[in-house]
Amino acid sequence: MRFNLNILFFSLVALSLSCHRDSNPVSPLEPESGGIIPLRTGNQWIYLITSYDTIGRPRGAFIDTNRITKDTLIGSAYWFNLNGGLYVTNKSDGVWYYDQGNTYKMLPSALNDSVIYSSTDSIYIKLVSQTAPVLTPAGRFTAYKYELVFANHLQFVPNVYYYVPNIGLVESDAYSKTESGFQYKGADAQLLYWIVQ
Q1: Rg of the chain on CA atoms, in Å
Q2: Are 146 and 127 in contact (CB under 8 A)?
Q3: How far is CA 109 from CA 59, 77, 144, 187, in A?
Q4: At a CB cut-off of 8 Å and minimum separation 6, what does 15 contact?
Q5: Would you say 28 and 81 are in contact if contact means Cβ atoms under 8 Å apart?
Q6: What is the pLDDT of residue 119?
Q7: 84/186 Cα distance (integer angstroms)
Q8: Cβ(118)–Cβ(3) under 8 Å?
Q9: Banded model confidence at residue 122, pLDDT cuts 50, 70, 90
Q10: Burial letters for 153-184: b for 16+ Cβ neighbours within 10 Å, e otherwise?
């Protein structure tokens, strides 16, 4: 499966993971609990997105809102639409997304488990910690830490995503390298506040 990296990055920023509901669908009137992403129509997350130069100075910033716009029943499970794009659901082994009749695991829930996004390019995301400390404008959290790795690309460095159970994505960090190989954080998204019904 070849996966568009732009869709992946923005989907991960938009998201927030892990409850199996296939045999007993969740009513859209009741929030899904126990997962990293609290899935219910109307839930939203507000982020401060900042870009940085190579020495860490902010170059620009803007506010972005991600929301669950609607839900639908696919098979026996409810799937939730993020920003009019991907449909996602929580399962016992992680977050899954629906695309053109197929389902794919997007984020694993087991420590050291990984999901391959592109076997051709060796791009995968791995859960590297379930107790990572993270500080955002929304508060101090203990989070699941994911690394998106571009294994066959020496010019790429891991991007990092922090998810908190029942809150969602609280921070993401996108790293870059200069032509000389210097690694720096090129952008981040930090949670300002969230509204979960």
Answers
A1: 16
A2: yes
A3: 34, 18, 9, 25
A4: 37, 66, 82, 88, 95, 106, 107, 163, 168, 169
A5: no
A6: 62
A7: 27
A8: yes
A9: confident
A10: eeebbbbbbbbbbebbbbbbbbbbbeeeeeee
